[in-house]
Amino acid sequence: xxxxxxxxxxxxxxxxxxxxxxxxxxxxxxxxxxxxxxxxxxxxxxxxxxxxxxxxxxxxxxxxxxxxxxxxxxxxxxxxxxxxxxxxxxxxxxxxxxxxxxxxxxxxxxxxxxxxxxxxxxxxxxxxxxxxxxxxxxxxxxxxxxxxxxxxxxxxxxxxxxxxxxxxxxxxxxxxxxxxxxxxxxxxxxx
Length: 191
Description:
ribonucleoprotein, elongated, Ribosomal_bL9_C, 9 strands, Ribosomal Protein L9, domain 1, alpha+beta, 4-stranded mixed β-sheet, Large ribosomal subunit protein bL9, 3-stranded antiparallel β-sheet, RNA-binding, 33% helix, coiled coil
């Protein structure tokens, strides 16, 4: 199906372009969301008549998204989660959790604006991209830790999944001889 785009859509085209898309994509997403019109003579005339209004609305949305991006620039959000000694989370941090953390800080971001292909399953610092507008995206940092103190240590650059960080022991200093004596007599050994 041929459609006229009413806004810029990533990997599809710019506002005003006529593009060919699959029928289901047009019927189920582009047309109901108001992102496109069917490409026929009546809709082409309608688009040309409304072009200035659509461009002004798009510019307004873009400037609002840019304001939010400027406010989010350089921010780190801390997520406290339960995790094992190796740093594996007992759950995960999904897009919904990121939205809740942003909302707690006063940012109204939609779930579909979080570009997180897989949930976060380990402690550490993770970069997450937010798609605020077709032309505005920003990368924020998510600090996943077991405690707030651990998050502060991670933010300073410490690694928290090694034996040194967890137990305060230097991994290189650990040797098998420190744990058992190979020369010790074992019960039941006969010589």
